[in-house]
Amino acid sequence: MPLSGRLERRSEIPVAVGGTRRLDGVVEVVDRLTHRLDDRRPRPAEQALHGVAEDLLRRP
């Protein structure tokens, strides 16, 4: 059965997949997760913001 849905950050995907794999009875995990923000590389021109209010702080 696939693991699907949308997470806030790309870096959260391996955590979700790894946690699911460790559950008793799970034989296979098919990763179909997507993300809203790609946080692999910070953007140098922007201040690093984290948390729920991130969108509100980025709006002009």
What can you tell me about this protein's structure?
There is one protein chain. The protein has helices at 13-21, 54-58, and strands spanning 2-9, 30-37. It has 60 residues and is α+β, with helices and mostly antiparallel strands. It has one domain (2-58). The chain has a two-stranded parallel ribbon. It is elongated and about 45 Å long. The mean pLDDT is 82.
Helical percentage? 10-25%
What is the typical, i.e. mean, pLDDT? 82
Rounded to the nearest angstrom, the radius of gyration is 15 Å
Percentage of residues in DSSP E strands: 25-35%
Low-confidence runs:
none
Q: Main β-sheet, in a few words?
A: 2 strands, parallel
How is this fold's topology laid out?
Blueprint: E1 2-9, H1 13-21, E2 30-37, H2 54-58
Compose a concise summary of this entry.
This protein is of the alpha+beta class. It has helices at 13-21, 54-58; strands at residues 2-9, 30-37. The chain has one domain (2-58).
